[in-house]
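can u pls check wat happens w/ zinc ion
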Amino acid sequence: MKVQISDIISGKDRNKKIDYNFQIPQFDFEGDKIKSSGSCEVVGIISSDSDILILNAEVKVDLEMICSRCLDTFIYPIDIDIEERFTTNSKSEDDEAVVVIDDVLDITEIVETTIISTLPIKRVCKEDCKGLCQECGCNLNSNTCSCNKEDVDIRFESLRGLFDNKEV
Ligand SMILES: [Zn+2]
Ligand SMILES: [Zn+2]
């Protein structure tokens, strides 16, 4: 999604309302492939202040992620406000403003970068996700299996044996 900003730069318009729906292409994040479920909604305004353009927008999109514990796909809703500054003047005194070339703002790229900066390192379907059973691989959120409990007890017993031996 690219937005022409020449009218704002030339001063013909003081600001420009934006209201877009577009697809975010699948992207990589720390080894995971993340894609959106449905379209991304961007609503806001681009306003000008001398040679600086300010984009203020609300970004909403549902991302499909893989839970790192149970490997299930889950929806991670994004609802963030972004504020970005731009300029077409490469000698602008505003250090934070991103210099744009060709009077075009690439909204998709801006949104993608912002979303990535807000993604959590730990991606789990829910805080208390039980993950997969180490033995049989079943999803412990929806299944119970008999393989784990006894195993843990046996290991614990043998560990205790080790400690007992050391103490002697
Ligand atoms: Zn999970
Ligand atoms: Zn199991």
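Residues 67, 69-70, 72, 124-125, 129 surround zinc ion (ligand 1) (CB under 6 Å).
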